[in-house]
């Protein structure tokens, strides 16, 4: 996968791309990420990337010319051009899966009050939002997207087992984790985890994941892949809940 990022703050990416999963994936050649300074695509002495909004109002707007030129310089016929913006389609794990099969991604990071609408209309294939909150630019959103997508690329995550476990638990919150010591400040690790009974451990973890999801994010249960046993356990948790039919 090749990713080209266009930003007025290219240095914001240096450190996040140099640690952990993103660093490893880049070193392994699984992903090739290049960050481009939008100002390199200006032609005036001041390297202007913004201007006043037509119609008045507060703040500045990113002017279209540098963005058009940047995308035209970087795009390949098969490139998918994404604008990070609060107006976009919500970026979820399902969208991350979609993105993971794209070969050429161009990520456009907005700043100021946003980009001239003609960019959204003409050069952008889709707008994506990482969530319903406001941040002041697309850079951090682009990094969130890359962390989520790059870990799905073949050869990035370690064992195929962890992928399998992931897909089983997909759509549920994680079960609680413990490590040594077995007792800490009077707090014990649940006995089942010390028992060595792997079937019991598996069952306990599944039920913990279900209970947490039920209590904290009941909305997730609507699309989570649930077994008959899962549904029975949830019914036991609260006799009232009715879950929609499972989709295979
Ligand atoms: C002006 C931006 C770009 C401003 C954003 C994205 C999400 N989910 N919240 N906020 C955002 C992106 C805000 O440039």
List keywords for this structure.
binds 3-(4-methoxyphenyl)-1~{H}-pyrazol-5-amine; alpha/beta; Trp Operon Repressor, Chain A; Alpha/beta knot; 248 residues
Short characterization:
The chain is α/β, with parallel strands linked by helices. It is built from nine helices and nine strands.
Distance between the termini: 30 Å
- Percentage of helical residues? 25-40%
Poorly predicted runs are none
Number of domains: 2
CATH class of the largest domain, named Alpha Beta
Ligand species: 3-(4-methoxyphenyl)-1~{H}-pyrazol-5-amine
Largest sheet: 5 strands, parallel
Query: How many H/I helices?
Result: 9
Rounded to the nearest angstrom, the radius of gyration is: 23 Å
For the record, the CATH architecture of the largest domain stands as 3-Layer(aba) Sandwich
SSE order: EHEEEHEHEHEHHEEHHH
What does this structure look like?
The chain is α/β, with parallel strands linked by helices and 248 residues long. It has two domains: 2-150, 3-Layer(aba) Sandwich (Alpha/beta knot); 159-248, Trp Operon Repressor, Chain A. It is built from nine helices and nine strands. Strands 2-1-6-5-7 form a five-stranded parallel beta sheet, with helices on both faces. Strand 5, helix 3 and strand 6 (104-109) form a beta-alpha-beta unit. Helix 8 crosses helix 9. The longest helix has 19 residues, at 198-216. The mean pLDDT is 94. The protein binds 3-(4-methoxyphenyl)-1~{H}-pyrazol-5-amine (6SD). The site of 3-(4-methoxyphenyl)-1~{H}-pyrazol-5-amine has 17 residues, from strand 5.
């Amino acid at each position: 996968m090749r990713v080209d990022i266009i930003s007025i703050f290219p240095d914001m990416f240096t450190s996040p791309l140099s640690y952990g999963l993103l660093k490893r994936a880049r070193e392994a050649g699984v992903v090739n990420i290049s960050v481009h300074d939008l100002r390199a695509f200006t032609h005036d002495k001041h390297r202007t990337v913004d201007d006043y909004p037509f119609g008045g109002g507060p703040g500045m707007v990113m002017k279209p010319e540098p963005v058009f030129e940047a995308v035209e310089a970087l795009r390949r016929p098969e490139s998918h051009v994404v604008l990070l913006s609060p107006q976009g389609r919500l970026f979820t794990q399902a969208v991350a899966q979609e993105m993971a099969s794209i070969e050429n991604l161009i990520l456009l990071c907005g700043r100021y009050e946003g980009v001239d609408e003609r960019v959204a209309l003409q050069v952008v294939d889709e707008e994506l939002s990482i969530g319903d909150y406001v941040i002041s630019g697309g850079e951090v959103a682009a990094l969130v997207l890359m962390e989520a997508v790059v870990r799905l690329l073949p050869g990035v995550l370690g064992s195929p087992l962890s992928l399998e476990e992931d897909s089983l638990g997909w759509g549920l919150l994680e079960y609680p984790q413990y490590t040594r010591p077995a007792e800490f400040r009077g707090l014990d690790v649940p006995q089942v985890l010390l028992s060595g009974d792997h079937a019991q451990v598996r069952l306990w973890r599944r039920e913990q994941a279900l209970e947490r999801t039920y209590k904290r994010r009941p909305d997730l249960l609507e699309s989570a892949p649930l077994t008959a046993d899962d549904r029975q356990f949830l019914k036991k948790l609260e006799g009232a809940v009715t879950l929609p039919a499972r989709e295979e």
